[in-house]
Amino acid sequence: MITKEEIMEIVENYDLDNLSIATVCSHSSLQIFYGARQEGFRTIGICVKEPPRFYDAFPLAKPDEFIVVDSYKEIPNIVDELRAKNAIIIPHGSFVEYMGGKAFAELGVPTFGNRAVLEWESDREMEREWLEGAGIEMPRLVKPQDIDGPVMVKYHGAKGGRGFFIAKNYEEFQEHVDPNEKFTIQEFIVGTRYYLHFFYSPLREDGYKLSNGILEMLSMDRRVESNADEIFRLGSPKELQEADIIPSYVVTGNVPLVARESLLPKIFNLGERVVEQSLELFGGMIGPFCLETVVTDKLEIKVFEISARIVAGTNIYLSGSPYSDLIEPDLSTGKRIAQEIKIASSMGQLDKILS
Fold first, then answer.
1. Residues comprising the binding site for ATP?
2. Domains of the chain, earliest start first
3. Nearest to residue 46, comparing CAs of 10, 11, 83, 95?
4. N or C: at which end does the chain have fewer Cβ atoms within 10 angstroms?
5. What range does the record give for the signal peptide (predicted)?
């Protein structure tokens, strides 16, 4: 992985009065570009083959310029062009997944956040070590031969739910598992899914204070998954099984959520523990992150995954959420990222938020 020292040598040659914000044209790019523009940054869209036409329909979120590559694997070839434009990369799930974690870790362009988190986030065993080390309650792990009730089988990396499946016994697991993929098996927790969108700032001091910096909770959502969210309209589980119709969990969209207010102390406690543990393990998880949780009927919150970057569920809130509006009106996660870069630049502390 490229070192912070190497990145800061690159930043030393940047014109800090003319920084650009760049990301791949996918996932959460509309709000990233829109938020950057709101804060006065020039924007760069990295796209494959040709600029997507849908940006023409959204002029406030259309990048100021596009850089076209033939494939995501060719992004390292445009490093010099990005540096010449004083670019800061904003990573998101599609960016990292399509380019590849190892290639992204070596990308020689200043990037918002701490790249060290990639290793901890993408490997589910390390992720569990991180979260359990923070005192977070997670679904228990199950060995294939010990499956005696519903379990969720997940593959490693950011795949938007693709390939995930539920198995109720060892035979079902064997029937559906891809032996070529690294997987984790978790007990299936019955409850309501809440995806909690946090932001950790090592720079600001006013707010929900941590050992260093503050924690913000900007919004939350629930994912719409195909075909799991609609499949039972076709019949009972037994009828679906007889028809050989299998639930799938590919994320196709997101819907807004607000938690009952009495849960907020628990929610902030979860975010605080995860950030403090990240500071101890790898120097901190900078900027946006999402705790993916299930809230049970006993009001227990169990965390089954973490995404240590902006997540697509924040796209619902381009003009703010019921939570972020209580920090600043019309505050999106994309705008909040741009603000943090702007603050760091003005304070001469870009080294605290870039890697």
1. 225
2. 1-111 (3.40.50.20), 144-189+224-252 (3.30.1490)
3. 95
4. N
5. none
